[in-house]
Amino acid sequence: MQHYADNMRDFVEKHATGLAVALVAGVSALALRRWMSGGVCRSRVRLDGKTVLITGANCGIGKETALDMANRGAKVIMACRDMTKARIAADEIRQLSGNGNVVVKKLDLASLQSVRDLAKEVQENEERLDILINNAGIMFCPKWETQDGFEMQFGVNHLGHFLLTNTLLDLLKKSTPSRIVNVSSMAHEKGRIHFEDINLDKDYDPYTSYRQSKLANVLFSKELASRLKDTGVTVYSLHPGVIRTELGRHLFPTLAMWKRIVAAAVMTFVKSPWEGAQTTLHCAMDESLANSSGLYYSDCALKEPAPQALDDAAAKRLWDLSASMVGLA
């Protein structure tokens, strides 16, 4: 034993600098990972007797949000495009939560008719809607079009949710106090609304498109909150964080090999889907936000959005344009 101790002491003395560097690197990595994980929703509120609708709830932060709310006793409506994945996810959520009141509905946000069909079904079959979470999205895809001819990222991330929300407003008002949560992104900070070329037909870039759609989410929330003042329906937008989900599936194959290697290393530090869902849950349920509306959140805390997201005139102009595009009076 003494011989072993002497060898260890010699090893430490000879490699003191390397061991110190390794220790500092390890502690720094742990600290970085903890910082990246962000805030946690502290609300303990129960949702028994409440109905929640979540778009894109079959994977990622949408699935984690659905599981949390099922655990709290809510009826959870999972509005998804891929029904096979949605049914598998719903079965898992029922088993994990013990809540059998988890249902799957078809929703393709790239089709305005699909949005209208879902809204009609919900209006006809649900007595209430307490929380609407516009979570689904697409990121950095090629120049694709929705079934109605709109640029895909703007169409799915903004227009589809714009129409869905407006067609469910009467049910939300009937269920007050109720909440609408729009999942945006910090990408809005570099975005602008291309009113003169909303579908980016002249010069499409997947990054420009995504940033525009995420800015649209924040502006939509701002204008919607203004229009719903004193109705009992409150509105929130948020940045969920950088998360390990399927959302980046269109980006990764386009990267050079060295960028893929770097990205894979970085992904070990970003948020898990559970961590990414926390700000959504905070906005949807935290009691301290009951009298707030139209604001933007990140890491379960109020955050100032980019200056262009505070432009009242742009928010109203976007509303009018969106209503015209989706055929709302």
From TrEMBL:
Keyword Protein biosynthesis (UniProt): no
Keyword annotations from UniProtKB, A to Z: Oxidoreductase
InterPro entries: NAD(P)-bd_dom_sf, SDR_fam
Top-rank taxon, per record: Eukaryota
GO molecular function: oxidoreductase activity
SUPFAM superfamilies: NAD(P)-binding Rossmann-fold domains
The family this protein is said to belong to: Belongs to the short-chain dehydrogenases/reductases (SDR) family.
Full protein name: Retinol dehydrogenase 11
Species the sequence originates in: Notothenia coriiceps (black rockcod)
Gene: LOC104955729
